[in-house]
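We modelled the chain as a single entity of 473 amino acids. Its sequence is:
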Amino acid sequence: MEILHVAAECFPMAKAGGLGDVVGALPKYQRRLGPIAKVVVPMYRTEFLYQQQWELVHEGSQYLGPQFFHYSVIKEKNNRLGFDLYLIDINGLLDREKIYGYPDDTERFLAFQTAVCDWVNAWQHLPDLIHCHDHHTGLIPFLLQYGFDFKTRLASIPSVFTVHNAQYSGAFGWEQKHLLPACDLSHWALLDWHHQINPLATALKTAWRITTVSPGYLQELRTSAAGLESLFDHEKEKSVGILNGIDTEIWDPAHDPYLLFHYTVQTVASGKQKNKEELCRRFGLDPDRPLICFIGRMVAEKAADLLAASMAACVAQHPGKVSFLVLGSGERDIEQQLDLLAAPLQDAVGIYIGYQEALSHLMYAGADFMLMPSRVEPCGLNQLYSLRFGTIPIVRAVGGLKDTVTDMGEQNGFGIRFEQASVQDIKAAVSRAVSLYYEQPGHLQQFREQVMQIDHSWEHAAKEYIQLYNSIQ
């Protein structure tokens, strides 16, 4: 079986969030199980691009409305990621440093999807299945079936569409329909949702199968999906939730190249303490206090707007007994709230606005607890990384967090869960963590050893995806 994954991100070529981690790992684990898995993403001008060797494998041309564009496809030569990685370049559209955030993102990803279909149409042999990820590739299942240049050869290729985050649909107005490649618009209803062309809705309607990145998220989407609830409910029979995994070769405290101090289950206490001391030294924090970290985008979806007030309340409730460290960037007003908080509470709160891969690994290793108060969390990977590093997650019971973290008050539980994205619930959860740290250090050590042995590797998810593929061949 040959699978082509199509996405906007793939770590380490390009990553803005969990999508990049998934697309950078799932194909590698699928290949180990037998299928040939390939990935194609846009050729952004990232550091990874200039560090690898590439070969040109295809050139072609298509239209974006009245504009004729040329595209090229290059392949990474050395199979560094464990699968074939292809990049599509379109001058003036995809040749940029950032993945998203441009005013012409609609045009950029329309051209990318059109080029993907045109390229696959030129293959001597066709893939057995095309797996599309999130709205940036949501029109491909439609184009395979109804694109005039593509449908003759490609309509019979099964398509799977994975929803990583339904809060973003890529919708644009019908006045831009001329940007679509030539297609049978008698099927316009498959493109439409609330009088707009909606790539996410189109994928839900036209893909052969739909997956979400956790079972819990699939259920939530039927009641909370940014206006697509009824469509998720309508397509439930062809939908399945498959929980994301993590690449345990990259996320391994025993060999992580970003860490100065490595450790295993047997040495977790001393190993975490050394990393914690290094982390606290950098930010002027006391390593004898429990350290609670947050890593993520500064957006309301992650409840980052509650961080400043929550941390201030927790420090006031536990003076001299708790420390926080935050890594991330996003909405400017949230960043400013955190900056204003850090100055008067510099002995208890550390803030790093931005992102550093090395720092994030050190935080997973050095933190005692990882706070994830998300309002929406389709799967969540941070809690899985935390567990791998012996860090106890403090999470809101939502989406994939609810699927992966059991409260320590329950049988075989190991984390701290709370119900509402509110300062009050966060403060109560942090109080439980502080009490555990100071009053039950033996139990904390047991939890660390327990969570490091939970298997959240990609092998399980890769097998589930292959079973899904086989069911539609």
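As a brief sanity check on the tokenised model: The mean pLDDT is 96. The chain has 17 helices and 17 strands.
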